[in-house]
């Protein structure tokens, strides 16, 4: 099992923007030094807590400061721009990163972003589906492209103005062939979108604020999609994000990750809970879909969603998660605001250097038995 990193991020609203950007960069640089496999970075235009407005621009700032970690959009919000721009910018970033780029995609869920862009009343899921189709066509066709897919609003061609002998009219292609790994973050239990991912060989990332009891539904749907095209699903392609904190002693772990009202974990889930209620998507945190909203409390979701403790306790929690969900290829560590930089960095270090080796040793021993 590999370890990855994901951050939206979610900072306190009063923090200085320049300071949080430096902190978010430092977290990815640390993840690279610790051997994390990849880092997914979210983007929002209109959220004072989630303050990375362009994930590709942020990732580009990290290329020269990292060595092996794969740099991933988490996600590029495809309903918010033209697919030609995403295709060209992602191709360039893949070259800048020497092939260390992953394209994470979604429609973009924040309604204030959509309103600011004038698409609040549009079917953003449909725009998203049309956009990814066109991005892949751009990467797989040659100039002048002449992309005119049935029922797709995006028409892409350079035929009328091309001058190919001058190099004019070509759209760039990624370094990785045929294109970078494409990952979709999945929030909903039984999400039908995961079936489509399986059919298209996109890879799922199960969100950290989905209850663990529902995670297996993502794998089942991914297998179904693969089966529909005569392919075999590989657990190595499935990422599962969780909210984790590791400390050298249990008291510190419990205070920082669970009980201290000034801690980043209570702040994070306080924000997420309110935002999911506001967007009418609280079902991702429910034990059953018809569970009353008022039964989903901050205490209940902290108890279910935050894995914390000393090394051995967190190892046991991850192995129990794997027993419940089934085999998966990567656990994705959710990044928080660094209320205590020392504790935040120590947690990442303990995850990489002590928790994951023990998890993998246990998996290996079970497989050999």
UniProtKB/TrEMBL annotation:
GO terms for cellular component: cytosol. Residues 1-326 form the Luciferase-like domain. This is Alkanesulfonate monooxygenase SsuD/methylene tetrahydromethanopterin reductase-like flavin-dependent oxidoreductase (Luciferase family). Belongs to the bacterial luciferase oxidoreductase family. PANTHER family: BLL0895 PROTEIN, LUCIFERASE-LIKE MONOOXYGENASE. The keyword Thylakoid does not apply. It comes from Aquabacter spiritensis. One of its GO terms (molecular function) is monooxygenase activity. Keywords: Flavoprotein, Monooxygenase, Oxidoreductase.
């Amino acid at each position: 099992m590999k370890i990855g990193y994901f951050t939206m991020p979610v900072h306190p609203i009063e923090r200085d923007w320049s300071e949080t950007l430096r902190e978010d960069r430092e977290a990815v640089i640390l993840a690279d030094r610790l051997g994390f496999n990849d880092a997914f970075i979210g983007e929002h235009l209109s959220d004072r807590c989630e303050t990375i407005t362009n994930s590709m621009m942020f990732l580009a700032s990290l290329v020269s400061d990292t060595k092996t970690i794969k740099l991933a959009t988490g996600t590029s919000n495809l309903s918010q721009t033209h697919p030609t721009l995403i295709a060209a910018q992602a191709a360039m970033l893949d070259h800048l990163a020497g092939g260390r780029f992953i394209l994470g995609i979604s429609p973009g869920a924040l309604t204030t972003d959509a309103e600011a862009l004038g698409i609040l009343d549009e079917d953003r899921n449909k725009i998203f589906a049309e956009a990814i189709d066109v991005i892949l066509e751009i990467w797989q066709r040659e100039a002048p492209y002449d992309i005119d897919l049935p029922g797709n609003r995006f028409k892409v061609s350079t035929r009328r103005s091309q001058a190919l002998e001058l190099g004019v009219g070509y759209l760039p292609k990624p370094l990785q062939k045929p294109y970078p790994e494409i990952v979709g973050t999945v929030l909903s239990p039984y999400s039908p979108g995961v079936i489509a991912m399986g059919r298209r060989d996109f890879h799922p990332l199960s969100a950290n604020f989905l209850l663990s009891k529902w995670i297996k539904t993502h794998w089942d749907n991914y297998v179904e999609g693969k089966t529909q095209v005569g392919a075999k699903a590989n657990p190595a392609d499935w990422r599962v994000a969780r909210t984790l904190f590791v400390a050298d002693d249990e008291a510190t772990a419990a205070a920082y990750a669970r009980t201290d009202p000034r801690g980043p974990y209570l702040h994070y889930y306080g924000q997420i809970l309110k935002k999911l209620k506001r967007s009418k998507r609280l079902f991702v945190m429910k034990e059953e879909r018809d569970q009353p909203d008022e039964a989903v409390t901050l205490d209940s979701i902290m108890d279910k969603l935050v894995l914390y403790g000393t090394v051995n306790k967190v190892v046991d929690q991850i192995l129990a998660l794997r027993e419940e969900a089934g085999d998966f290829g990567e656990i994705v560590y959710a990044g928080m605001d660094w209320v205590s930089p020392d504790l935040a960095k120590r947690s990442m270090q303990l995850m990489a250097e002590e928790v994951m080796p023990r998890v993998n040793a246990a998996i290996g021993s079970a497989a050999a038995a």
